[in-house]
Every structure is written in C-alpha cells, then in structure tokens.
Please model this.
Amino acid sequence: TNGQSMGEIKPWRPPRPRPNATAAREQNTGGLQFLHIPKNGGTAITQSAQERGVLWGAANVGRKRVEIVATRNGSCSCPWWHHPAWSLDAELAVSKGLRRADGGWNPTFCIVRDPRTRVGSVLAQHLQSFIKQTMGDVPPKAEQIMILRDLLTRQLPADPCFGACHFMPQHEFVYAPDGTQVCKHVLRFERLGVEFADLMRRYNLSSVVLLDSINEQRFKKLQWRDLPLDLRSEVTTRYRRDFDLFYPGELIKSNK
Model:
C-alpha cells in the first residue's frame, strides 16, 4: 500500500528538479498538457498527438502505468491518466509535465461531455468488455437497463473507481478539492473539432490534427429516452455538479 488513509490527500512535496526532461517535453508539446477525462474522446486526442510526436496521456506512460492514489472518494487503482491530476503524487505529476517543481500547474486542456451521452458510452464499453469475456451476444435493451441500474445503485456507491475510473464525475478532473481549476482550457465534446483546432493554433501545434476515430463501440448505445424516469434521476443526481458546471441548460431537459 501507499501508507495513506482513504480520502487523505498528500501534501505537496517538491520533487528533485529534472530540467533536461522538462525542456524536452515542453519542446514537444508547446508547453501544453492534456488531462484525459475517460469516455470524452481522450483516446483520439492521444493518438492524434502521438502521430506528430506529442506524447500526452496514455502515450506518456514511462515507468508507471497504474497508480494507487488518493481521491475525494478514497483510493483508486487505475491507469495514471484516468486519475484527476491533482490526486497524483508530486514526482509523477512533474514527470508527466502536469505540474512544475514549485507546485504550480502547467497549461492544460481537457474535454467535457453531456453527462447523458457519456453514461451511455461508458455503459456500452462496459457491456462490450462483458461480451468479450463471456463470448455472448449483445444484451437486449431491457437487460442493458438492468445492468446500468446495478452500476449506479450498487457498484459505484461501493467503488467510485469501478471500471478503471470511467464513471468518475467530470468536475473531479477539472477542479481540485480546494477549488483550483486544474484544467485551464475546457473544451466541449460536442464542438471538439473546432475547439481543438483553435487551441492547437494558440500553442503552435497546428500539425496535430484530430483523427476521425473516437473509439466508439460496435453496437448501438442506450439513448437517454430509453431510460426509465427513476434511472434518469439516478444519473442526474450522481452527475449533478457536472450538469451545473458544464451543461446547466441540459439539466432541465434531462428529466423530461
């Protein structure tokens, strides 16, 4: 174990400076770093950047792939890029170019998505993994709804990091517990093509062009209209802060 209690956040301890590695990373990324919020197009961003020699997220693996870190919900064991950046230890955060040795944050960007479509995408991935393991068929819609209900009402309350942190609320990645905005540039999934291109130009990374593939599943996902009202309420309750911060106008529509 890492010797820390559930939910405890380690105080910032500046790591030993590594100026050569930092300079090389800034040269490759334009000083900009990517915060991967699961199921929001992060794989496409990572692959698009890697095509141009820019190592963000999963492409910037280094010596550690899985990290056990403290979060607001306890300790999680997930790939490091699926963790909120503020919850990573100092040495790892600096080695990935997310933080400076003095504890400050380097410029970062992330992608947020309507919580309703994000939940559908996460569920589809979960089902696809289940189908692959069991060699079964795509469950009928009614069974998919039962699986989602079980995830929201039983598995996630018991384990907020369930599914490699894919179900974690988006605001956890944008804001630290003290209110600091860790993600400087918050892009919208629904306008990703335009907003991503604009941001790349601002950081002299115009050669990084978003690939067409967004890592979607091979079967049709549940739509919001497919969910019964009580399950919609579960989703809006769990992701209420995501709605409030990023999609306030959609919260009213979500219960119709």
Observations:
- The longest helix spans residues 115-134.
